Amino acid sequence: xxxxxRVTWLAxxxxxxxxxxxxxxxxxxxxLTGPVILAANHAxxxxxPLIGSxxxxxxxxxxxxxxxxxxxxxxxxxxxxxxxxxxDGGGAAGLKGILDRLLNGGAVILFPEGxxxxxxxxxxARAGIGLTVIKSDAPVVxxxxxxxxxxxxxxxxxxxxxxxxxxxxxxxxxxxxxxEAKTCPKPRLKVIYQEIADQLxxxxxxxxxxxxxx
Length: 214
Known about the structure:
The chain is α/β, with parallel strands linked by helices.
């Protein structure tokens, strides 16, 4: 970890422990080296730091490219391994940045739903994550966060002291769909992207916290 990243990582862990009484389940399922995609549900601004601070390896995050316009803040985001993307996260530059991190052995957090939930419920998956999965050889670890909507939903101004939980699932490789995608026609390729996204959300939906972690 870069020095700034490590200090921020330690501060985030302290914050989640003290303010949110966090619980981390199965972090050992995340490979400590090599490329990996962490695919999680999205309920709050707390989700990326919660997921990233739960594992002892550097993580690459996504943020709107407009945030990098501020020199000091832009420098800080780069120290945190943040990849600039356009507002919808679907631009070619953003995709290239994500794939570059994966090809260099990095870990990246992606949200199949594309945006934060407005009611605390899981949302339908978007095909974008399927494209990233197909373009890389990285294993995909499904992740589910609990309590972050209650702690800091899009309707709240500041985080509340609610308990949060992050659970990491068993890695998925999508080998068969990756092989098919190499030779299939474009219409089928688009279907494959959505199939991957849907499969991920189905697995995420089945992840449940331990009884003593609720």
